[in-house]
Design a protein that fits this description.
About 5% of the residues lie in helices and about 30% in strands. The protein is mostly beta strands. The N and C termini lie far apart (about 55 Å).
């Protein structure tokens, strides 16, 4: 009741993806990349040229969900800065040996841009490319809940080490491989500005 009357600010987040129509099922945030990804194509209108014609898309609906994984409402607005990385490269061997200085620290500033105090669930997502097995287009690797007064900003820090970056590879070994990694710090699985780093051998 307090939430309905604005006395308490909601901060819950969706643990599933809500589709726009039944025809979009199955729909989930950490899907594998398709053979014809629709990157850089306006999916809100019919295809106008060959570049936008032969991509994975619905004929009469956009690919995007109605509400993405991690989405949630609030009585205030939060603004995110682009993430900052402690380094733009690291070593797979050093990560596999769990060397502390091999981990990548990700920081981002979050500001309450509204006039109401609120709590925000800050989420960390990654995408890997160049691995021996296909990886999801986004993976949730961490989250933190912070409380902010109106106009207040806080810096949130995440660490990407072996535990976050290792996976079962094509040889069925759990380890970190050389790869390209994109990182988002965002409100949900469909938003945010990516930054990239490289994992060398």
């Amino acid at each position: 009741m307090r939430t309905l009357f604005g006395e308490a600010n909601p901060s819950g987040r969706l643990t599933v993806t809500f589709p726009r129509t039944v025809g979009q099922e199955p729909l989930y945030y950490n899907t594998l990349s398709t053979g014809r990804p629709a990157e850089g194509v306006d999916l809100s209108r019919p295809p106008l040229d060959s570049d936008s014609k032969y991509v994975s898309r619905y004929v009469d609906e956009t690919n995007a969900p109605a509400y993405p994984f991690g989405y949630g409402l609030s009585y205030t607005n939060f603004e995110y800065s682009a993430p900052q990385l402690s380094s733009t490269s690291t070593s797979a061997d050093a990560l596999n040996q769990r060397k502390p200085d091999a981990a990548i620290r990700v920081t981002a500033s979050v500001r309450n841009a509204g006039s109401v105090s609120g709590a925000e669930v800050v989420q960390l997502y990654i995408r890997r490319r160049g691995t021996s097995v296909t990886m999801p287009v986004r993976e949730l690797k961490g989250f933190q809940k912070i409380a902010l007064a109106p106009g207040e900003s806080k810096t949130v820090t995440f660490t990407l080490g072996r535990d976050e970056l290792a996976f079962w590879n094509i040889d069925m070994k759990e380890l970190v491989e050389p790869e390209q990694v994109s990182v988002w710090v965002a409100h949900d699985s469909a938003s945010g500005t990516p930054v990239k780093f490289e994992i060398r051998q």
